[in-house]
Design brief:
The structure holds 2 protein chains of 2 kinds. Chain A is an all-alpha fold. Chain A is built from 3 helices and 1 strand. Chain A has one domain. By secondary structure, chain B is of the alpha+beta class. In chain B, a hairpin with a 3-residue loop joins strand 2 and strand 3. The chains are: A mainly alpha, B alpha+beta.
Chain lengths: ~90, ~220
């Protein structure tokens, strides 16, 4: 499936590195957990596994310095299936 | 059962017919002025894995491909469709103003990370060495923030720049840019990266405008 999320991969497919996808995941985490419209009142904040998220953050941070290709890429460059990139970005 | 909220948009924005969180179909909850993209969710659903984050993001992006969006914070569950509708009505003017603020825009993230691995574990440093290292990183972060502001602010409608929150992460920033200026913005960021010695700039996006839709974030 060719969802627009795939554009968010930093590196193009041939230069895609694990670290580049991790930076993308890190930016995704920052946005989804701290940004967005906050709805107060009736909501239940249903975020479980936050410890896991924090854990992957520190792993991701540790590896950003290994990025070889930090230059931004044009949209559509990161033609990786999202499932694959998220699976690979997930720390063991 | 509850309703998971992905994003809010103007009423005429097509809501994607796709799968959302946990494979539930995405659907629309509408008022005359606004529409919310939602899906049904288990009250005790566990959220937080990478695939859940991407599922949320994909729905927001699909909605954004048809118009301007206000992404909801991850993990927003409401009781039922009627509560969503009441929310859209109660905060209609706020949401419409926020939509106007982000109209035709993307968010791009730029972070600055210390170049190369840290040579020493900070736990092994003496107090004085640690403080000198911390002071050096603070100065570097301040300089980089100013350089980012100088180089990128002219291309952006709004920006959020803050110090990184972990060692080696010097600066985190978010930029709200006109969609047609995306390539120009990235080129400018790449130029700045090429001329930056001690840090590397990492750019991701385009994102929905997560960092620019809170009521407290209006400019």
């Amino acid at each position: 499936m060719s969802g627009p999320s795939q554009r968010n991969a930093v590196a193009s497919a041939d230069r895609a590195s694990l670290a580049a996808r991790e930076v993308t995941l890190l930016d995704l985490l920052d946005r989804l957990l701290q940004g967005g419209v906050a709805i107060h009142g009736d909501i239940t904040l249903a975020v479980a596994d936050i410890d896991l998220v924090d854990l992957s953050l520190s792993v991701v941070v540790a590896s950003t310095s290994t990025l070889q290709s930090p230059s931004p890429q044009p949209p559509g460059a990161g033609a990786e299936p999202i499932e694959a990139s998220t699976a690979e970005a997930r720390p063991e | 059962m509850s309703v998971y909220l992905y994003a809010i948009a103007a009423a005429d924005t097509p809501v994607p017919e796709s799968e959302g969180l946990h494979g539930e179909p995405v659907r629309a909850v509408s008022t005359p002025a606004l529409v919310a993209a939602v899906s049904t969710a288990d009250d005790h659903a566990h959220l937080g894995g990478d695939s859940d984050l991407w599922a949320h993001e994909q729905v927001v992006e699909a909605l954004m491909s048809g118009g301007d969006v206000l992404p909801a914070r991850f993990g927003t569950l409401l009781g039922d469709d009627e509560i969503v509708r009441q929310l859209l009505i109660a905060r209609e003017s706020e949401f419409l103003e926020a939509l106007a603020r982000v109209a035709g825009s993307y968010e791009v993230a730029v972070r600055a990370a210390l170049l190369g691995p840290r040579t020493r574990d900070t736990a092994e440093l003496s107090g004085g060495e640690y403080l000198r290292l911390a002071a050096h990183e603070m100065r570097l972060a301040k300089t980089l923030s100013e350089q980012l502001e100088h180089a990128l602010r002219p291309l952006a409608r709004a920006s959020r720049i803050r110090p990184g929150r972990q060692p080696g992460r010097l600066v985190e920033s978010a930029w709200l840019i006109d969609r047609e200026r995306l390539a120009e913005f990235r080129d400018r960021a790449a130029e700045l990266n090429a001329s930056t010695m001690e840090a590397e700039l990492l750019c991701t996006g385009p994102w929905p405008p997560y960092s620019f839709v809170g009521a407290e974030q209006g400019e």
